[in-house]
Amino acid sequence: MLSVSNLSVDYGSTRVVDKLNLALADDEILMLVGPTGCGKTTILQALAGLIPISEGEITLGAWSASAQKPVPPEKRNVGMVFQDFALFPHLTVQQNVNFRLKDRALADHWIELLGLGALRHAKPATLSGGQKQRVALARTLAHEPVFILLDEPLSNLDAALKDNLRWEIRNALKAAGVPAIWVTHDQEEALSVGDRVGVLKSGKLEQLDTPETCFSEPSSRFVARFLGEASFIPGHLEQGRVRTAIGDAPGTPVDGATGAVDLLLRPDDVSLIPVADGGGNGEIAWVRYEGGARLFAVTLDDGTEVKVRASHETRAEPGSRVQLAVITTHPLAVFNRE
Ligand SMILES: Nc1ncnc2c1ncn2[C@@H]1O[C@H](COP(=O)(O)OP(=O)(O)OP(=O)(O)O)[C@@H](O)[C@H]1O
Asked: Fewer CB within 10 Å, N or C, the chain?
């Protein structure tokens, strides 16, 4: 188990990571997300021992590192996977994976498991981005690290590749049974691949929980907005139900919210029906075509903006009238009115 307590990192007089606490089970994947500059890469570097820490402790089985007693990177047995793959261009796939490896059988195991068998003798320049990242992962896993750090491993790949490869990486990490921390800018990736998601804000963990909880019960408006489209509409919370201008829903209060509140709505918590001019309860502000669906921004008659996702078959132009209704039956997060 990886355990991090009160980990802080300063650059000069600026605190970049502030008292980070987390514990990861042996095969757990934690997705780390947050706005640019919030400290994600710094956390990975601190865990790998590449930069000094200011306070706190990192413990993993055989070793324990603190500001007073640092452990050098080569003694930590941490595997790292980067967005730029970091392969040796003059070596073949097999030689890259074998590099500094004692047990060649493990190289073969991961080469086969990651579908690279036919590419053993290829040089990196002849591989696609996805294949290169598989080689980098095979090399990392073949060294039997006690824990793995992935810094945006898919950000240099195109969207079609990402979808499959994120699952292949997840499966390989699970097969290896080592804890992993995976930094991503992609909220969909964070929610779909992670066992847990950590949302960082200015060097502090704002929420650390399962993807479902982070998404549907965010601990703050910041987390709600960071993990997807979020609309907040005024309502009144009483006896577990929140009443709004577009319908009722069961409510889960955040920070003891009660009485006059704001209800968090995700785009699929609401239905949209186009109506004749003069009817309905709102007007389309803009529409974004997404392929299988359309995302509508609707200005309600009280001025609140709500985003709604509807089938691509739903057609309504900006300026036209619509009827919105809350359609969800699961509890929605409710925040104190700002
Ligand atoms: N070597 C350094 N010296 C001084 N400040 C640094 C150094 N490296 C990073 N920083 C600062 O520390 C903060 C956190 O940087 P970090 O790279 O960890 O953020 P990040 O969350 O990974 O950002 P991004 O999403 O853009 O990759 C930023 O304000 C950055 O400017």
From this structure: C
Ligand 1 contacts CB of residue 38 (under 6 A): yes
What DSSP assignment string belongs to 7-30? EEEEETTEEEEEEEEEEE-TT-EE
329 lines ligand 1 (CB under 6 A): no
Quick one: which of 324, 337, 279 has its CA closest to 298?
324
Q: Is 39 in the pocket of ligand 1 (CB under 6 A)?
A: yes
Residues 172 and 71 both lie in one domain: yes
Residue 85 has pLDDT above 80, yes or no: no
Interhelix angle 129-142/104-113, rounded to 10 degrees, is 140
- Provide ipTM, 2 decimals: 0.96
- Give the model confidence (pLDDT) of 223-234 as tens digits: 999 999 999 999
d(CA 254, CA 335): 5
255 and 172 in one domain? no
Give the SS3 label for residue 247.
strand
Is the Cβ atom of 203 under 6 angstroms away from ligand 1?
no
In this structure, is residue 304 part of a structural domain?
yes
Does residue 223 lie in a domain region?
Answer: no
Q: What is the dihedral of CA 266, 270, 276, 282, to 10 degrees?
A: -50
Ligand 1 atom nearest 42 alpha carbon: 18
Does 24 share its domain with 158? yes
Full domain range(s) for residue 42: 2-77+145-216
Residues 210, 196: contact at Cβ < 8 Å?
A: yes
- pLDDT one-digit tens code per residue, 118-144: 999 999 999 988 889 889 989 998 988
Which atom of ligand 1 is the closest one to the Cα of 38?
A: 21
Q: Does residue 41's CB lie within 6 angstroms of at least one atom of ligand 1?
A: yes
Residue 143 Cα to ligand 1 midpoint, Å, equals 28
Same domain for 322 and 175: no
Same domain, yes or no: 157 and 283: no
